[in-house]
Amino acid sequence: MSIPKALWLSLILTLTGCGEMKENAATAVDSDPGNQFFPKVKGIVQILPTADQPTRVIIDHEEMEGYMFAMIMPFYVQNLSELNGLEPGSEVTFDFHVKNYESWIDNVQLTGKKGKIKTTPADWEEDSDTLSPGDVMPDYDFADENGKPVKLSDYRGMPVAMTFVFARCPVPEYCPKMMRNFNEVREKLETDPEAPEKFQLLTISFDTVNDTPEVLKNWGAAYGHTEEQPWSLLSTPEDAKIREIAGDVGLKFGTIEGSYIHNLRTVILNPDGTVRKIFTDETWNVDSLIEEMKAAEKQE
Q1: What's the CATH number where 186 sits?
Q2: How far apart are alpha carbons 59 and 173 in whole angstroms?
Q3: Which residues make beta-bridge pairs with 268?
C-alpha cells in the first residue's frame, strides 16, 4: 500500500516514535567502522532489486545489537543469485558484513514463513509538491554545531550544498558516506583554483530528539569537521520544521510499525537561493557535486 505524503509526515520523528530508537541504538561515532560481522539476522523482504538499484534489496530487519536498531534498510548483495526465490513478504535470515567503507549481505536463507510488507516502490516516488530546479528554497533557521542560530538565507550569494542525515545511522554507504563525501568536497574545493570564491556545505540532521549541536559536533569530528570550515552541522528540536523542509526536497523518514526507515537527499542551491539539483540517493560522487557547485557560481 502506498504511503501518501500526509502519512509520511505523521511518521516523522516524534518523541513517541524515537523512544525505542534512543534506547536501543548505538551511536555511530567513527568514520571508519572497521570489520564487523552479524550472522543470522532475521528480516522480511520489502523491495527486491530494481533497474535503478540492481544490486540492492530492502529488508525490514531486526535489531543488530550494539550496531543498528530495527530498520527497513537497503542492503547490497554481491551475488544476486542469493536472492533467487525471494519475493516481497518473504522472511529470511542473512549474514551482514561491514568492511571499512563497504557493507553487504550473503548467506540469504528463506525460513519458509511470510511477514508483513510495510513499504513498496510506490512509497518512494516524488510528491507533486517537491521542489524542482529553479524553484526558490524557503528560508529555514537551525542551530549549528556550536548552538549558534543560522538561516539558509545567511548563505545567499554563494553556492550551497546540503544533505540530510542522522548521527546514529551506522551503515557506511548511507549517512556516514554523506559525511565522508562532504569532507572530501570541502577539501577539494578549498584547494581548487577554479572553485567558487565562497561556498557553504550544510549537513542537516532529521533526528530532532537525539542530534543536538553537541552530538553533531562530536560526530562530525570523526569525519574531519573542525571549526571555521565552510561546512556546518545543523539541527533543530522542532519536528514541524523538519517536516516542511523534508517535503520540499522529497526526504522521507519515520517509524512504520516499529521499524525505522529513511531515504537520502543532497541538494545544490544556486547563489540566489533557487534549487539547482537534487541528488535522490547515495550514489552521487564528489566530483559531480563539485561540478554542480562550480556551475552554480556562474549562474546568471
Answers
A1: 3.40.30.10
A2: 16
A3: 161, 277
Give 136's DSSP letter: B
Q: Are 262 and 252 in contact (CB under 8 A)?
A: yes
Is residue 278 within a helix (H) or strand (E), and if so which, with residue range? strand 275-279
How wide is the angle at C-alpha 71 spanned by C-alphas 167 and 182, nearest 5°?
30
User: In the listed set 81, 100, 122, which residue is the last one of a domain according to the structure?
Assistant: 122
Tell me the DSSP string of 186-230.
Answer: HHHHHH-TTS-SS-EEEEEE--TTT--HHHHHHHHHTTT--TTSS
CA distance readout (Å), 158 to 91, 139, 203, 297, 299: 49, 15, 16, 7, 10
- Quickly tell me which residue has 571499512 as its cell: 100
Grid cell in block for residue 103: 557493507
Q: Which structural domain, as residue segments, surrounds residue 80?
A: 5-22+34-122
Q: Is the CA virtual torsion 126, 59, 245, 183 positive or negative?
A: negative
Task: Pick 1 or 106 by higher pLDDT.
Answer: 106
pLDDT value of residue 255: 86
Tell how far CA 128 is from the center of its chain.
21
What is the dihedral angle through the alpha carbons of 208, 98, 83, 4, rounded to the nearest 10 degrees?
10
CATH number of the domain where residue 41 is located: 2.40.50.320
Q: What is the pLDDT of residues 62-84, one digit of tens each?
A: 999 999 999 999 999 999 999 99
What is the rounded radius of gyration, in angstroms, for the C-alpha atoms of the chain? 19
pLDDT over 90, % of the chain: 78
